[in-house]
Design brief:
Layout (H helix, E strand, L loop, with lengths): L18 H18 L7 H10 L8 E6 L6 H4 L12 E5 L5 E7 L14 H10 L6 E8 L10 H6 L4 E5 H18 L9 H8 L8
Parallel strand pairs: 3-4, 4-5
Antiparallel strand pairs: 1-2, 2-3
């Protein structure tokens, strides 16, 4: 059964302008992850969510992320590559050095503990073949929606086809980033809690009545 995401428009394509905006976007992402990961889906929802959420996750060090079809530099970097799917679902730009990350996205229906079936060798063959050139692809990621391992490949075999494949749990990353923002908000100074603020306000207003 293929299911449509519950909130396809909740995550704006524009980068959030404040921590509160980022918090709202990440909360929407977590809601979608919780809802969609309990169902069998075609995985397109996770591709879209990865593209929208990736630049918000500080640990990923990504400045921009696009679907393969929308990648604006595709014709310059890979002039002979078709617009159609070549096994690479998304392309991200590293913030630190501007280099490219090839991303394959795999959604699994998760158990109650957040784990899902392994991604097998046959599911990655096209991705590995499409992202072989290490001078173009600084990294290759497999983004999953929970505790989903990579199975059927030895690390040596994967490395022979290019850079190693890093398995990235989007749900875990979004949860971690959400926690960081919550901690930052808790540590932020509160102007209403400053013991001097009431005295300053009283002075500014001419405070207190004078006796005659």
């Amino acid at each position: 059964m293929t299911t449509t995401p519950i909130s396809p428009n909740k995550l704006s394509t524009e980068p959030p302008s404040s921590d509160q905006d980022r918090t709202n976007v990440l909360d929407a992402a977590l809601e979608e992850l919780r809802t969609m990961s309990t169902q069998p889906t075609d995985g397109l929802w996770l591709e879209d969510l990865t593209v929208r959420a990736a630049p918000l996750i500080s640990e990923w060090d990504i400045s921009d992320c696009w679907s393969w079809a929308d990648w604006p530099d595709r014709e310059d970097v890979l002039p002979d590559a078709p617009e159609q799917d070549v096994g690479i679902d998304a392309v991200a730009r590293r913030r630190a050095d501007g280099r490219w990350i090839a991303i394959q996205v795999k959604s699994r229906q998760l158990d109650f503990d957040g784990s899902g079936a392994a991604v097998n060798a046959g599911e990655l063959d096209k991705f590995l073949a499409g992202a072989t050139n290490p001078t173009i692809w600084a990294e290759r990621w497999l983004v999953v929606n929970g505790a989903v391992p990579l199975g059927g490949y030895s690390s040596a075999k994967v490395t022979m086809s290019g850079t190693p494949v890093k398995v990235v749990n989007l749900a875990q990353a979004v949860n971690a980033q959400r926690a960081v923002l919550a901690e930052n908000a808790a540590d932020a100074p509160c102007p209403h809690c400053d013991p001097n603020s009431s005295a300053d306000a009283e002075k500014a207003g001419g405070g207190g009545g004078g006796g005659g």
